[in-house]
Every structure is written in C-alpha cells, then in structure tokens.
UniProtKB/TrEMBL annotation:
Residue span(s) of domain Acetyl-coenzyme A synthetase N-terminal: 59-119
Root EC class: ligase
Protein name: Acetyl-coenzyme A synthetase
Signal peptide: none
UniProt catalytic activity: acetate + ATP + CoA = acetyl-CoA + AMP + diphosphate
One GO term of the biological process aspect: acetyl-CoA biosynthetic process from acetate
Superkingdom field: Eukaryota
Spans traversing the lipid bilayer: none
Amino acid sequence: TTNHLRHVDSLTISPSGAGNISHLNAVILGEALASEEDDLIFPSDEFSRQALVPSSAKYLEMYKRSVEDPAGFWSDIALRFHWKAKWGEPVYSENLDARKGTVKIEWFKGGITNICYNCLDRNVEAGNGSNVALYWEGNDPGSDCSLTYSQLLEKVCQLANYLKDIGVRRGDAVVIYLPMIMELPITMLACARIGAVHSVVFAGFSADSLAQRIMDCKPKVILTCNAVKRGSKVICLKDIADAAMVESAKNGVPVDVCVTYGNQSVLNRESTNWKEGRDIWWQDVVPKYPTTCHVEWVDAEDPLFLLYTSGSTGKPKGVLHTTGGYMVYTATTFKYAFDYKSTDIYWCTADCGWITGHSYVTYGPLLNGATVVIFEGAPNYPDSGRCWSIVDKYKVSIFYTAPTLVRSLMRDGNEFVTRYSRKSLRILGSVGEPINPSAWRWFFNVVGESKCPISDTWWQTETGGFMITPLPGAWPQKPGSATFPFFGVQPVIVDEKGVEIEGECSGYLCIKHSWPGAFRTLYGDHERYETTYFKPFAGYYFTGDGCSRDKDGYYWLTGRVDDVINVSGHRIGTAEVESALVSHPHCVEAAVVGFEHEVKGQGIYAFVTLVEGVPPSEELRKNLILTVRNQIGAFAAPDKIHWAPGLPKTRSGKIMRRILRKIASGQLDELGDTSTLADPSVVDQLIALSDC
Ligand code: PRX
C-alpha cells in the first residue's frame, strides 16, 4: 500500500551517529520492517500529514538530538516557559551510579519559575483567558460546570491567599483528600502557586492509609470534602478523614486545620460530623479572599509534590517530584504523545489521586493551554455508554484511559458504544498496565472506528511522564506494544547480572541517564531510593518491569517483576495486603500473589493460614476481605482467599511465591522443582484445597 511504502521510505534514512541509539538500529537499518504487514497498523496519510511528528524520520532526527545533546534539546523547549531567572550551567547534572556516591538528579537548577504561573497566568496573558480550562462532568448526568482559564486562575488565587493566611508557607506539606471535583486541581495549583508541597491521597484510600501518609509528611493542613456520590453510592469522605486524623494525632501528628468542601447536594452541613476549632467549611472562608495572589517564585529543584506509591515492602514510598524538570517534561510529553493542537478537547479518565491525574489531568494539559474534561463519576454509571455520551457532549478529541476500563466496556458489548457518534475522536490513549492485543483492537476498531491512533503510554509514578510511547502519525503501530522511547529516554534491557542485551531480547527494563521528569528522592528516605531503584543494576534506573524488544525494535512491556501487582492499573504491594491480612486476629500468616484477571488485568490472590483450631468459613473469608478494604481501600480487596494449612517455604524460611503463582493461575503441571522446600507435602495440601 502507499502507506506502507511511505513508511518504508522514511525508515531507510542513514543511521550515522546512531551508536547510542542502537536499540533503534533494527528499524533504521532495515529496508523494511521485518514484521508482516498484518501485524502493523499504519496511520492514514491524512493523519500523518497534520501530525506534529509526521514521520519516523522526523522522530529519529529529534530523538537523536535529544540523546546526543540533552542539555540543548531540553533547554530549547524549556525556554518556551516563563522563568523569572534562567537556570545556570550545567543544564543538568546526574549521578545514577550509587558506587560513585550519592545518587542525584538535577535539571535547570538555579532557574526560578512557578508551575501554577505557567499553567494559568501565562495562558491568560497570552490572550486565552476566555478559553475553557476545565469542564466538570458530575456523577449524575446533567450535573456539570466549567471554568475558563481566567476563572480558574481566580479560584486558585482565592484559595492560595487563604492558605497563606492560615500560615502555609513555601516548603510546607499539604494533604489533599478530595474526589474529582473542581476543588481538587484548584487545590493542587494553589499549593504550587505558594510553593507548598501537595500530597494528594486518592479518595478511595481508607482512613488507615490516609493516616499513614499524614504521619509521614506531617501536613500543615488537610483539604477534604464532606461526602461524594460515586455511581449510586454515597461516600462520607469527611468521616474517613476524621478517623485518619484521630489516628495520626494518637501517633503524635495532630492536624490543626481541616478545610472541608461542603457538597451540599450529597450531604448537608447539619449531618456532617464536625470538630470545632479544627474543621472549617471551604465555602465560608475561601470566597472572601482576593482573586489575585502573588506568585511564590521557586527554584526549578524545589519540591512540587509528594505522591505515595506501593513498593515491595508494606510502607508506601513518598515519591518526590520537583518543579522545573517536571514542568518541561509533562508539557512536552503531553504535546507530542497526543499530537496536541489548540482545537482539541482532552479527556483523561484518571483520578488526580494517581500520577496520571497529576501529570495528564492537571499539569501537562494546562501547561499547553488545553481544554480538559474532568469526570467525577463511575464510567459505567448510569450505564456502560456513559463515556461515549461524555465524548459526544464535550466533543472530546483525545480520550485517554486504562486497559481495565477498555476490557470491561468491551465485555458489555458494542451496542453501548455505537449508540453514540464519537465523531470528534481523533486520538485514543492507554495507560497503567499492558494492553492485551484483543482489547487494543476493540478500542481501535470499535471505539475509534479504525481511524484513531492509540498512544499506549508506558511510564510510572517515579518517571513523572511518558517514557515509552507511540507518537501518533510517526510510526506504524503494533497492538500491545508501547513502541519506542520518548525524546531523551534511553531504555535498556538487561539480564539478571545487569548486562545490557542488544537486539531482539527479553529482560529487565532499565533506563540509562536521567530525564527532566524523573523523581528526585523518596521523601525522608534517600537510602531506600538508591537501594530500590539504582542498586539492583548499577548505573541504571531500574523500573521494576519486565520487557522485550522485537525484531523491529518495538518495546513490549510484560508487567512487574517485583512484589508489586497491578490491579485495574492500580499499583498494590503484596506486602501491604499481607500485612493487612495478618492484622486479623484469626490469621497467622498470609502470602499474596497476582493472577490473570479478565477485566482487572491482575487480580489479588491471597493464601491465608489460620490460627490453629479456627475453622475456615464464609464469614471469616468476608471478614478478611473487609479487613483489607478497611486498612488499604476497596480497590485492594482480595479476589480470592485460598485457605492454606501451610505455605511453601525454603529451608531458610523464605516463601516460594513462584509456586504460589502457579497454583493461583491453575498451572498445576508447571510447579517446577519443589524438592528444595522445607516440607514439599505443603504443596499437595494446597492443591487439594484449591477452589475452596
Ligand atoms: O508495570 C508498569 C505499569 O504500571 C506501573 C507503574 O504504575 P504507577 O506508578 O501506578 O503508574 C501508573 C500510571 C503511569 C509500571 O511499572 N504500566 C503503566 N503503563 C503501562 C504499564 N505497563 C504496560 N504498558 C503501559 N502502557
């Protein structure tokens, strides 16, 4: 086809100087891609012609510069933002090798800026104040509102003034426990404006999880709301926040101020539990403040936010991002991976409680002056057509979501999709977990009617922004592959010894060199930062993911290789679930593994050993699940509890999870060598109790 030839032409460009982009050689050197054309999905000529990166040749040219001259490449982009003072030299400095000293990453150090100013004031000053910044779609169809850039700026300034007035200063932590209402991005931006460090806690987290985060970052203030509706359920967030504050106070971290947004239509004031002296109604104070507020100019390397994420131990990690590099990186990745144009209407279904909501609901899009849809509700309420009704209502052109939602909508049938026009859609996006080729094809063919490229963006809380992602229009796509690295990103695949493997291969995914959006530390625990991410494979950032590279140089992410499971795109540490389970008085030991789940991607499978003499029962099973819901959140509830008289352990007492994973996935003939177990008969007992 002409499409194919066009791409092949652009792939035969000279690979001069490609030594450090060798992972692309397979593509550059080939006369044609080695794959059958059937495996490849080409963007239309019409699409490519209008794209920001219209060909693979253009991508290669830009990529090459980005890795050969990172300082020049990123400085040119950074200059498009507003800086009160320019950064010094060098543009960046890095040490990713713990053997050579403290691991350190800095970008644009000495540059003085403010990300809120760049998101709002800069766009208003450019004459775009009357453009819509945020469309808010409420849980119930028909409830909605919007804010222009000027209006959003005013709201942010009022809150910023209030926060300053109650003593929040540059560098102070602020905990945000809010659902997807306008006040959530408003609060993030208000913190950024005054140099306070926000720590958003996803509103699905339990009181215990919230308390743990409060105790770790010791906020000056917490902002929440009294109650919210999600689907047909009412959730009393304030009660959860109250319980968390009681818990944190007991542990020596009292919260002095709790600003509560009153969601009157869900729960009135009189019915909201209240602690005089600590609690304040948002609506009583914030609207009284002036609508302009002085900007706190900060260093590029001053902290912007903390976001807690799961690791392989029970204690969540406070991932810390700084200002300048994060700003430049999220804005640039947003622009290119979604081929963003000023005429686009953008909707990302993620909650601001996760990194996707930080980088690609709030900062990345607003930095580009985009119009963003935010949605409070559940994507299948009142029915499975809700997403497409929203797409039609706002004329969404870029729709970014998670594979778990794609799979669940796919299961509900095409009728819910085809009922709506979806004519405005131009680009689709996927994030959070590998997207299986069948879900990819359904998304592409049914939702996008075979005309919208899919940006399958691979990245992490730690990376700040996209790392491996298609650039729509530049490359033929392969369903299920995140394709190629973003500008400035140098992925490498290493074996167990940390040796880089070239060409077609599988192994552990690491990143060589820093990029502007990289996290700088784990809050209060730089040692854990080094140990977890930089020591496993010396000299590299270790992602925790497995990955393979095919004969054409495309990257395929294969999932976590550590004790983290990915449930509906939410990261959960197996150790966190285990520690919740063993807190139940009837549970002596628990081991948690992931198993393949049709909709969630991975489900949670818990092996539980009960206290001697306690019989397993349905009630106990429910109780154990409830314990996890209460301690972590509903999204971490085990899908399966497997009663285990004993767990398979080595003679040194280490649980052999490999065996448990096989039992969980029903691959009983692939258990492998069990002879090294302290008591091999445990395995037979477990198998006998399968499906109980
Ligand atoms: O395993 C990868 C998976 O999600 C992990 C990061 O989770 P989190 O920090 O919560 O951030 C999620 C949103 C960026 C990764 O280690 N993951 C994320 N995106 C993809 C993915 N796996 C495959 N393909 C993706 N596009």
